UniProtKB/TrEMBL annotation:
Protein name: ABC transporter permease
Coiled-coil regions, chain positions: none
Subcellular location: Cell inner membrane
Native species: Vibrio ulleungensis
InterPro entries for the chain: ABC_transp_permease
Chain segments annotated as transmembrane: 6-30, 42-59, 65-84, 91-113, 146-166, 186-212, 224-249, 269-290
UniProt topology in membrane: Multi-pass membrane protein
UniProt keyword terms in alphabetical order: Cell membrane, Membrane, Transmembrane, Transmembrane helix
Length: 308
């Protein structure tokens, strides 16, 4: 393959990996606090629908983005009230949230199915976009891609070098010790859950306002589930998460590349590649149980009761 083709593949992988990166980053922060939210798919769908509807009816893309994040946060607030305040099972509550979000987004967006709009266009950063190879890849993207770069950098700094990150990790590892130090465990976990919901909504907005500026039912195509696997694949480390998101993004477009190269395989089988990659990754991770146990937040998915 020549350099131009490699560059185009890298650009496509970055675009395809961006929604995975956004939603997985929110889930990583959420899980670092000890909360396992399996409702990512439902929140992402609600974000995609709300974002498209907001932009479609107002003509303002950024209003759509904000509405998408509010929709994601509202869904995550519902999850937080049930699992953190009422101590319902986090796995069951998350699954119910996905089912609820899938149905509600289809119902509310039924009148918009097939509608289109002019979404976010690439914005070339003067000077930087002229750098050979890296310029078009990193500095000629739409504004939501640039926003994802900023969010990753800020999240990595906050988690690694600030009191907020230390508090979040403490709550995820040993909430009772954190509570004894005066940390409001439920409040911290609820804040992390809301952040995860906002990121899921933003990921949905990217799909309906930038990647494919339109709305259709179930347009996330399982990306919420892939994001959950991606967090485990990254061992709850943001650096690995970035790499994994773009690798999964490349796997998502690989079937198109193979069809273009004339590979004589059913397109339906080729379209299974990203999901097959997810299964393979989970199997490989599960084969190293000790490493996974050491990386997993100790209180992940466990309810907290200050009276215990």
């Amino acid at each position: 393959m020549d350099a131009l083709l490699i560059q185009q593949l890298a650009i496509a992988a970055l675009k395809t990996g961006t929604p995975l990166l956004l939603i997985a980053l929110g889930e990583l922060i959420c899980e670092k606090s000890g909360v396992l939210n399996l409702g990512q798919e439902g929140m992402m769908l609600m974000g995609a629908m709300a974002g498209f509807a907001g932009a479609f009816y107002t003509g303002n893309l950024w209003f759509g983005v904000m509405l998408a994040m509010v929709a994601g946060m509202t869904m995550s607030l519902l999850f937080g009230l049930l699992s953190l305040k009422l101590n319902t099972n986090q796995v069951a509550t998350g699954l119910a949230l996905t089912i609820f979000g899938t149905g509600l987004s289809a119902f509310l967006g039924s009148s918009l199915v097939g509608a289109t709009l002019d979404g976010f266009a690439p914005f070339a950063i003067p000077g930087l976009s002229q750098i050979p190879f890296l310029g078009p890849l990193l500095f000629n993207q739409d504004l939501l891609v640039y926003l994802s770069f900023i969010l990753v950098a800020v999240s990595a700094y906050v988690m690694g070098y600030t009191r907020i990150g230390l508090t979040l990790r403490a709550v995820g590892e040993n909430p009772h010790a954190a509570n004894a130090l005066g940390i409001k465990v439920v409040a911290v976990r609820l804040g992390a859950t809301l952040f995860g919901g906002a990121m899921a909504g933003l990921a949905g907005a990217y799909l309906s306002l930038a990647y494919t500026p339109m709305w259709m039912e179930n347009m996330t195509a399982g990306r919420g589930w892939i994001a959950l696997a991606l967090v485990v694949f990254a061992s709850w480390k943001i650096g690995y998460l970035v790499l994994g998101a773009y690798l999964f993004g490349f796997a998502s477009i690989l079937h198109l590349v193979m069809q273009g190269m004339g590979v004589d395989i059913s397109p339906n089988l080729l379209a299974m590649i990203p999901y097959l990659a997810t299964i393979i990754v989970m199997v490989l991770i599960s084969s190293n149980a000790l490493k996974q146990k050491l990386a997993t937040p100790m209180s992940l998915g466990k309810p907290f009761d200050a009276r215990v």
